[in-house]
């Protein structure tokens, strides 16, 4: 059971997740920190290491990286958000709204935080992946090892993504094989009945 929990933690513990966790003002509020064994993200060694890796990727220029590190130090040490409203709203307001209201003193970090917290949660990618998995690992092909099925799903998904770049994707017999894709603007020149048949 412990190995399963560690595997799930490692799967969700990405650089970007650690950065988002570090930029969430809630985890610096006194109400959250008063819980047992809780510490702010800037004091956690693993989160700090992952955050730094992510920031280096986003800001490859050394000057920008230093500037964003200084902004993060101001944010985590409550040096830039010092007014009473900002401090009291740390655990109460949605992170995106709080960055909009109080983040102007750290412009690089504010822009990054708004991008991170503006991401909608959706299970559509997972649903699409499960659909592909059920296509690959069906009742007839049930003796396949999980690793083999996972590899085939990976290949199928990447081939589908690569095919979107080809000019024949928008024309020809396979024009509508991936209806909508990630964008919802590819229903041009398609009748209602054609879509219903798909």
What's this model, at a glance?
The chain is mostly helical and 198 residues long. Helices cover 58% and strands 0% of the residues.
Characterize the structure shown.
The protein is an all-alpha fold. It folds into two domains: 1-118, no CATH class; 123-171, no CATH class. The protein contains eleven helices and no strands. It has helices spanning 2-12, 15-23, 30-33, 45-58, 62-76, 84-88, 95-102, 107-117, 124-136, 146-163, 192-197. Helix 7 (95-102) packs antiparallel against helix 8. The longest helix is centred in the C-terminal third of the chain and has 18 residues, at 146-163.
Keywords:
single chain, mainly alpha
Chart the SSEs and their pairings.
Elements (H helix, E strand, L loop, with lengths): L1 H11 L2 H9 L6 H4 L11 H14 L3 H15 L7 H5 L6 H8 L4 H11 L6 H13 L9 H18 L28 H6 L1
Helix pairs in contact: 2-4, 4-5, 7-8, 9-10
**Which residues sit in consecutive blocks of at least 5 with pLDDT less than 50?**
180-187, 190-198
Strand content: under 5%
Number of helices: 11
The average pLDDT score comes to 79
